[in-house]
Amino acid sequence: MIKTIFIPALAGLAVLAAPTAALANTAQDTVTVRVSAADLDLTSDAGAAELQKRIRAATFKACLYDAKGQVTPADVQFSCVRESSKEARPQVAQKIASARFGG
Questions:
Q1: Angle (nearest 5°) at CA 99 between 94 and 101
Q2: What does pTM read for this prediction?
């Protein structure tokens, strides 16, 4: 299962690809979730925290169901969330740094 999270950048679109470890021998599905940061001031701690909160919520939601709309097993959900979050972290940090320090 692969989860992709899109975060609109200040100028353009930043893409967060978040692969997840699904059950062995299972076909991979792709889910795309859009997370808006347009209304956030990422130069502030509160804005950065809100972006992190939105990404966490979107990741949980995206990992809850498989491509057929069935609830995924708990171990797959936890793995999906963990891997998606791990993959997104550096890209989110880069987005916040770009807002704060230019780039």
A1: 85
A2: 0.71
